[in-house]
Write a structure and sequence with these properties.
8-stranded antiparallel barrel, 8% helix, 2 helices, mainly beta, elongated, Porin, 239 residues
Length: 239
């Protein structure tokens, strides 16, 4: 079901972007990462703490209209979570998973000035590259094995974001955004085999990012297009 939705979404976005402004750029930011675990006994998320990890990559954008288009990214993204002992906070466990993440967004801009609010929403696919764990005498006693369970190699998810874009000139723009990410993998699990006692698991994050875009094919204002007739002159043509 999710795979069919993503394929349909990508095809529809490709069709509408065949004649569009074309831009490339880079972005960099940090995400506050965590994991959502549904357990039978008690709330495992109680032991989690803030875990900030970097993300960086390439942005490719198509704007088929002045305020709407398609945006695809190729991101090196670190995800994971960190747990601390509630009595001794210096004791901790963290698990970091490195992904090549490819999100595809519907991109909406509000207004026509140089500074515009931006809304992004769309699915992503992520390919696991590697992972690592770090621990400082963390021996939290429970019946769960999320600390060592193998993570799936491919995961799916959804992203949504809001931000601001400043078009410096016809060829360049800068942007800053906040995003929310929820991972969907298999039957709601990020692990290849569901850990004992855990009913569902998925990674999540809230991130902030900034970047720059170069308009390789700039957008042509309506008044510069061949055959453009201002609305106020349409009646003159009819006479």
């Amino acid at each position: 079901m999710m795979t069919r939705f993503i394929i349909t979404f990508l095809f529809s976005q490709l069709v509408i972007s065949l004649s569009a402004q074309f831009s490339v750029g880079v972005r960099y930011g940090y995400a506050n990462c965590g994991i959502h675990l549904e357990a039978q006994a008690f709330d495992l998320e109680y032991y989690q703490t803030d875990f900030y990890l970097p993300q960086a990559g390439l942005v490719v954008a198509f704007n088929n209209k002045r305020n709407a288009g398609l945006q695809m990214e190729f991101i090196y993204a670190q995800k994971g979570w960190k747990e601390i002992d509630d009595t001794f906070p210096e004791l901790y466990f963290s698990r970091t998973i490195n992904y090549l993440e490819i999100p595809v967004f519907s991109h909406f801009e509000i207004g026509h000035g140089p500074i515009r609010p931006v809304i992004l929403v769309g699915p992503y696919v992520a390919f696991k590259l590697s992972e690592s764990a770090d621990s400082n005498n963390f021996n939290h006693p429970n019946d769960y094995d999320q600390y060592h369970q193998e993570v799936r190699n491919i995961s799916l998810g959804l992203k949504a974001g809001i931000g601001l874009r400043y078009n410096i000139n016809k060829r360049m723009a800068i942007f800053a955004e906040g995003r929310y990410d929820i991972q969907i993998a298999g039957s709601g699990d990020i692990f290849a085999d569901r850990p004992n006692g855990i009913q569902a698991s998925r990674l999540k994050e809230i991130s902030g990012t900034f970047g720059i875009l170069w308009h390789i094919i700039p957008q042509t204002p309506p008044e510069e297009k061949k055959g453009y007739v201002p609305k106020e002159n349409l009646y003159d043509l009819e006479e």
